[in-house]
Amino acid sequence: MAVGSFSAGLSGLAANAQALSVIGNNLANLNTVGFKASSVTFEDLVYQNVGGSSENPTQVGLGVGVAQITPIFAQGTIESSRVSTNVAIQGNGFFMLMGDQGPSYTRAGNFDFDRNGDLVTPDGQKVLGYTTVDRVTKEIVATGEPTSINVPPGLLRPPVATSQFSMITNLNSSSAVGSTFTTAIDVVDSLGATHVATMTFTKTGTGTWSYDLTADGGDVTGGTAGTPFSLGTGSVGFDATGVLTTVNGNPPADIAITTPSWTNGAAASNLSWKVLDANQNPVVTGFSSPSATSSTTQNGTRAGTVANVIVNPDGTIVAQGYGQAVVIAQIALANFNNPAGLVKLGGNRFGDYPAAGIRSVGVAGSGGRGTLVGSALEQSNVDMAREFTNMIIAQRGYQASSRIITVSDELLQDTLNLKR
Q1: Would you tell me how many other CB atoms lie within 10 Å of the CB of residue 388?
Q2: Beta strand ranges found along 357-398 (DSSP E)
Q3: How far is CA 190 from the centre of its chain?
Q4: I need a labelling partner for 52 at 20 to 30 A (CA). Which of 11, 22, 30, 225 fits?
C-alpha cells in the first residue's frame, strides 16, 4: 500500500513539474511576436481493484499524468510597428513559409526584404503568396500554388501600356445644340510615356452627342505638333430618362480605338473605352445637370522604382514609387480544421502534423481566414496574471505530491520498526 502511494506521489511530482515547465515557457515568451501560450491538462492513470464487499468497484488509482499540452490560439494584441513590411493577422490563419526544411507556418509577421528582394522572416524563411498580375484588370491571380514574394527595393519595373480607360461622365441634356464638353484622359504607351488624350463631346440634337478623342499631333506619327489629331469619332444617344441607349448607332458596348504609333518610338495603342461598368450599367449619362466627369480610370502604369510598399487587409502588397500605387503581390494564408494539432518547430513556426488536418490555402478575408493589418505585429497572447495563478496551483500540487511521499516514507519506516 505504501509502495503504491509512493508511485502516485511521484507521478504527481512529474506532472506538476511538467506544468511548471509549460508555464515557465509561456512567461519566457511574454514578449515574443505572435507567440501562442500553451495549457496543460492532467488525466488520472490506471486503477487497481483492491476487493471489498461493495457492489460498486473498489479501486485505487495509481497517480496522474499529463493528458495534453495544447497551444491556445486566442487573438493576441495588435500593435503598430511603423515598419511597412510587418503584417498582423486579425482572426484565423497562418502565414505560409518555405525554407530548407520544407513548408512551415507562423503567426509572427515581422517580415522584411533580404538582399535578393525576397520577403522573409528573421531566420530567412521565405513568405509565400501570389505574384501573377492580370495585365488587364491589374488584379492578382490568386489561384494555384503560392510562391515566394520578390520585390527588390529600387528595382526598375517595366511599364504597362494602357489598354482600357473609363470615364464617369454626365452630358447636360439641357445644353443647346452645338454645345461642347471636354475631358482629359492619360494614356501610357508601351515605353511608359504618358500622353494626354482629350475627349470632346458635342451636342447634335435631343438626346444625341458626338464624340471625338484627340491627341496632340506632335505625339503621333503623321500628326502636326500643336494640332489635335483625331484618334476616334462616333456618337452616343440617350433615352427620355437620360440612360445611354446607343453607341455609334448600336446598343451600348465597349468602344475599340487604335492609335497610330507614337513619335517617341512606342507601338500603337489598342484602347478600349469602357462605357459599361462591371455590372453592365452605363457610366455615361444624359441627365439635366451640368456636364461633368466625376472620375476617370485607365490601366496603364509608367516605369518606376519601388520606394515603399503597403499591405492591404486582403493581403495585397501595393508598391509605391510609380507616381501611383501598383498591386504587385498578395500574401497567402493557410487555415486548418484543428490548428492545435500543428507541431511547434521553434522560431515562431509551426509544422504540419496529421492531427491538424489538411491545410486550406487562400487569401485573407475568405474561407474563414482573417484579415491582415499592415505595419503592425500581433503580440504574444500570454496572460501574465493567469500564468502566475497557474504557477501557484502547480506549485501547491507539487508540494502536496511531495508530502504524500514524505508520509508514505514515514508509514513504511513504522512498518519496518514493527520487527524491533
Answers
A1: 12
A2: 360-363, 371-374, 376-378
A3: 31
A4: 11
